[in-house]
Structure formats: C-alpha cells, structure tokens
Amino acid sequence: MNITLKVKLNTNEIHHSALLRTMNTFNDVCNELSTIAHSTETYNKVQLQRNAYHGMRETHPSFSSQLIIRAIDVVTATYKKKRSKNPNYFKKTSAVVYDDRVITFKGTDLVNIWTNDGRINIPIQIYDKERFKYRKGQVDLVYQNGKFYLLCTLEIPTESAYNAKDVIGIDLGVKQIAVSSLGDVFSGEHIEKKRKQYHSHRQRLQKRGTRSAKRRIKKCGQKESRFRKDTNHVISKLLVTKAKALGYALALEELTHINKRVTVRRVNRSQRMSWAFAQLRSYITYKAELYGVPLAIVPAHYTSATCSECGYCEKANRKSQTVFLCMSCGHTENADFNASKNIGSLGEQSTSLLFAQPKAELVASHTPCACGS
Is the overall model pTM greater than 0.90, yes or no? Predict the structure, then answer.
C-alpha cells in the first residue's frame, strides 16, 4: 500500500535561498520543455527527451542533467492529463521531482540534496520515523507557507484481512460527525463552533479588503483545512483500531454525490458543505486496508427511515434530527444510532465480507411504505 509521508526541511537562510533558486530554475526548464512539447506536439517522454534534452543542457549548462530528465517526465505527465490551446504552465514554486541520484537520506535526521549551489546537507524532521524505512521511488520538494517539505512515497506492507466476528455500522452526519452501532459518538459541536469562528473571521477580513487581509484569509483557510484533516484522522483511527481490537468489520454508507442527491435548508448549507466527508471516508478506507480490517460500502437509501428492530420503513419514523420513533412497533432511540445499526445490518449481508462464524439469515424484506423500500 502506498501512502505519502511529509518530511520537513529545517533550513537556514543559505539552504532556503539555494532551494528556492533550484525550484525556480527547475520550473523555468519545465516551461521551456512545455513550449517545445506543445509546438511540436511531442507528448511522448522518450521522443521529447530526444528532441529537447541537449538543447536544455546548452541553455542551462550548470543545471543538473538528472533534474532535466525529471523535468521531461513532469511535463509529459501533465500533457497526459491536460491539453489546451496554450502550453501547460508551471509556477515558479511548483514541486521539484528528485530521485536517488540527486538526493540521499542520511538516516532519519539529515538529507543530502542537489541545488544550484551544489549538494548541501539539510537537517530534516520526520513525524513517523518507523515507517520511513519503507520509502520508495522519487521525492517531491514542495514550498508551502515559506517552508520546504519533502513528500516521500512509502510502500507499506498491509496486514491480511481477517474473518470478522461481526460488523460495526458507521453513520456519518453533520450534527454528529460519526456514530457507530457500538454506541461511539463523535460530536460535531466543537467542529461547528470552530467553523463559525473561521467564518466570522474571514468575513471581518473580507470587509477590510487590504493585501494583508487577503493573505490572512488564505492563512485562515489553511488553518481550517488542517483542523478538518486532523479531526478526520483522529476519528478514522479510533474507529479502525477499535474494529481491529474486537475482530469486527466496518460498514460505511455510499455517500458519493450526496450533495447532489440530498438538499438541505439554505441556513444549513455552509455547515453541510464545509465538512470533508469524502476525506473521512478515504481515511477510514485506507486505514482499514492497512490494518486488515474488512470494510463494506453499503447503499445509503432509507437507513435513516428504517426501524432497526422490525425493519418497517417510513419517512415519518424520523421525528427529528435526533429522535427516531417507529410508527409500526413503537421502537424509539437516537436517530443516528438507529441508522448506524441499519448500516451494520446491510454490512452483514455484504458478500465482500468473510465471517468467522456463519451469520444468521437476515430479513431482507421490509413492510411496503411511502418511501418505496
């Protein structure tokens, strides 16, 4: 399984200046190569190297020949994704691609990297040193908020999926970010408080309209993005590690294009659209694969309107955002918890899961109702 590890470069003024000049030169080379590729309609890597490599060596004699090869790879890769009337353009601070010929890691504390000023040693800071031994392939040098980072690809071995004892259904929402069928609740209250803080702060800055205010708006957005990412990582890890410890599988709703299928009130729109449910699902998915936790993706239709006890489905069962009351059997409980149990039941029926013990046949038919299930 491939994941990306972000490594911070602890640069001084000399390191910073050398890396920035190297990055600018690399992207100048990319723009020149892009112009050649576009004008000659040469989008094949081998052919573009034949046509442009020697010219680039003459134009940039002091620049690394290996980085010119990497620039050719980058340019041809962009033309596979996008072709327009004008040549594809690279910003001055777009990523630089390094391979093992121009970058060498000396343990987990130092890196030797090629720059316009020659090879230099720079201290590095790695969050997860245990996994760094799985680093494979090329490394991207990126420039974010005035700091340099290396994005390393890690090829981590995954654990074999086990035979699950049972299934934990997970209901994703706004008021409660995630509710499991075991009763775990991840409240969205503190998240909504943070969202309002960021939103009101951006509004104040937008009224000013100065260049400084615009820079601060950008920083505010980056902070909010990091907050969402961190929260989703925490929730996903807790869910997956608990399933692993119990020997259970996980079941999630299929929420692709949920914003197109389901509408919300105008006053709740920003709250609904601000949270990255796709990101949370992707984190749960890759962590489940990493730890060998079986995962089923089930249909989301009617899970909130169906009684988890008798299977009766009716829109009127959902009394409010928090209350579920079955119109048939009178069963009542928290609406999100009820939905999570339905998701777990659908996960038990999934043919993609293997169970340690045969599961009892589940009742697949519901009482016909107004919602059409």
Answer: no
